[in-house]
Amino acid sequence: MTLCHEFTSRDKLLPAATLGNYNKRNGCANAIKIANNFVDTYTEWLSERPGLGLYLNGPNGLGKTHLLTGMYKALMKRNVSAVFMTTYHMFQRFKEVGKVNDYEYEKRLLKVLYGCEVLLLDDVGGEVPYDSRAEKLLDVINVRSQKRPIIYSSNFTTGGLEQWMGNQGKRIADRILENAITITLDGESKRGLINDEHHDWLAGRVKGLE
């Protein structure tokens, strides 16, 4: 838990944000229901779908960072080891390792990224898509695959992320689709779209899910 605190992007957390005060605007109702279900039934979720996370995508202003902040706070209160990190911050951490060649620092960083129970990655695709960065992200996804969930937020659909992330884009998008339920926050719709093979299982867990 100490390492989780050390590597969390604390300056990017929204201080007042919780799942309880999330503004249920158009196109986001499903997202908050699923976020609450993930937190409240985390042990059951992990038992039934090991490593299954969420990929929340949609334009700015719909509360994606609010949702991730709220999930992070709620999980930590339940003593679930969680890390909230922007992908830009994650890449900067790897860059620091390269500059100083600090083996112990790298060891702590990888222990957190690979081993924390829930990793919350905010603003995926918000950084410049160098191939070296894409490879780091892919490595983290692969190590955690079907073991420990990642909760993502992004302005990109997985298709858009594939194009943005360069040579590794397709592999990253494929891995995300394998290991996360894709939820599109859409200000035009009333509930938000869910495009995922796990939909029927999820609908059985979350009352009123469409």
**In what order do the strands lie side by side in the largest sheet?**
2-3-4-1-5-6
Percent strand: 5-15%
What is the CATH class?
Answer: Alpha Beta
| Percent helix | 40-55%
CATH architecture: 3-Layer(aba) Sandwich
The number of distinct structural domains comes to: 1
The quaternary state of the protein chains shown equals single chain
- Give the CA-CA distance, first to last residue: 36 Å
Q: What's the SSE pattern?
A: HHHEHEHHEHEHHEEH
Per-chain topology:
Elements: H1 2-7, H2 29-40, H3 42-48, E1 53-57, H4 64-77, E2 82-86, H5 87-100, H6 103-115, E3 118-122, H7 131-144, E4 150-154, H8 158-164, H9 169-179, E5 180-184, E6 193-195, H10 199-205
Parallel strand pairs: 1-4, 1-5, 2-3, 3-4
Antiparallel strand pairs: 5-6
Q: How would you sum up this structure, described in words?
A:
- With 210 residues, the protein is an alpha/beta fold.
- It has one domain: P-loop containing nucleotide triphosphate hydrolases (Rossmann fold).
- It is 50% helix and 13% strand.
- It is built from 10 helices and 6 strands, in the order αααβαβααβαβααββα.
- It has a 6-stranded mixed beta sheet, with helices on both faces.
- The longest helix is centred in the middle third of the chain and has 14 residues, at 64-77.
Outline:
The protein is an alpha/beta fold and 210 residues long. It has ten helices and six strands. The radius of gyration is 16 Å and the shape is globular.
Keywords:
210 residues; single chain; Rossmann fold; alpha/beta
